[in-house]
Amino acid sequence: MRYSELSESELTEYAREAVRISREHVATGGIPFSGVVINSGRILGTGVNRVREDNDPTAHAEVTALRAAAAKYGLHATAGSTLIASGEPCALCYMASLYFSVSHIVNVVDRKTAARYGFDYTSSYSIFAEDPETWPIKVTSIQIPEGTAPFEDFLTMERGRP
């Protein structure tokens, strides 16, 4: 089932599931972000924001849900999937969704509403529109002759596989 085949009532039920998961996480001390990955009419993975618990700044709810789906069903299982997020994804989560080939993202609470509750991540969206030279971190490229060797090795190995 592709995202376009999910009815509004199905999306609403999955959104309610995301909110239920999020509320459970808040009740145990977590923050109110959850993700639910759906493909072919079934939930492939769920996740909550585990940044604090795991000391992992990439452990956002959407990312943990996508990781769970890929771990259980394989990396390509998320292709064409729908991701339901209790809060609108930040830039990291939108990018992760693209890398996991998600076709549809549905959020229950948009970024402006999340900001009113103390979760203002709106600045995360604009950084990629800027040249890395203007970012708040230093980005340097060092060209060395052997720099492409691992990539060449990889291509050689890939070409040798049946």
Main attributes?
about 160 residues; alpha+beta; globular
**Class based on secondary structure composition and strand pairing:** alpha+beta
Proportion of residues in extended strands: 15-25%
Cα(first) to Cα(last) distance is 32 Å
Strand order of the largest sheet: 2-1-3-4
Provide the gyration radius in Å: 18 Å
DSSP strand tally: 4
Mean pLDDT: 92
Tell me about the biggest sheet? 4 strands, mixed
Shape: globular
Number of helices: 6
Instruction: Give the fraction of residues assigned to helices.
Output: 25-40%
Order of secondary-structure elements: HEEHHEHEHH
As residue ranges, the low-confidence spans are none
Structure description:
The protein has 162 residues and is an alpha+beta fold. Helix content is 39%, strand content 15%. It has 6 helices and 4 strands; from the N terminus they run H-E-E-H-H-E-H-E-H-H. It has helices spanning 8-27, 51-54, 61-73, 91-99, 111-116, 149-159; strands at 34-39, 42-48, 82-87, 104-109. Strands 2-1-3-4 form a 4-stranded mixed sheet. Strand 1 and strand 2 (42-48) form a beta hairpin. The protein is globular. The model has no long low-confidence stretch (mean pLDDT 92).
